[in-house]
């Protein structure tokens, strides 16, 4: 397999990557055949996966516009993935020029592309780090340069926590970030769940098994399990809901049935 110029030498291009599979679902071009093959295998069980990812992105953009409308001009996007059109810094800086954004990802491809996209943008940067080590993120030079933790921040964990197993205690990591945020900060979150998927759970389990096979287990938590991430936050209306129902721009009933898979919510620190 020939290594394209955009792929860092440090990555193994024979192993599927969650962020590159996500890029493929969104119609991006920064993925390899090994990623596309894994995505197609998962889509044999859940053909609506691209629709789910599109709903994730649409929710993210609405949530960022909501945050800027609330006067928040600082964004920390963890598990940001490979930049695509309408990413956080584009939406935030269009709505609020000078808004500051720090992306965080542990995938070298995602980090390399973020660096390329953000070149020349003094108000945005990227950190190579992992959600499970909050202090490495909060103490990074990029966060210290761009994010004032004494003022409200929007913390984005979009389509991320379902890739963190219970053994790694994602609840503790999210709580640690929350403890570092100023009052009035927002937690923006989406999470996969069997609830809402328009097919039997045993069928959806086939797609979950594909992610297990590529050593990136997909943890399908219940609505109650997802609500636990918002402990210590006041939920913003309409609460934790299927993605198209969170402050929609268009009538939710017009969305593809697959878009209602999983949950989205925004919480505010007090």
Tell me the total number of β-strands. Answer: 7
User: Main sheet?
Assistant: 7 strands, mixed
Structural class: alpha/beta
- Strand residue content: 5-15%
Radius of gyration: 18 Å
Bulk shape: globular
Q: List the helices and strands in order.
A: HHHEHEHEHHEHEHHEE
Which ranges are low-confidence, i.e. pLDDT below 50, for 5 or more consecutive residues? none
**Helical percent range?**
25-40%
Q: Numbering strands along the chain, what is their spatial order in the largest sheet?
A: 3-2-1-4-5-7-6
Report the end-to-end length measured between terminal Cα atoms: 52 Å
Number of helices: 10
Average pLDDT level: 93
Descriptive notes:
The structure is a single chain. With 270 residues, the protein is an alpha/beta fold. It has ten helices and seven strands. The chain has a seven-stranded mixed beta sheet. Strand 2, helix 5 and strand 3 form a beta-alpha-beta unit. Helix 1 packs across helix 2 and helix 3 packs parallel to helix 4. The longest helix is centred in the first third of the chain and has 21 residues. The model has no long low-confidence stretch (mean pLDDT 93).
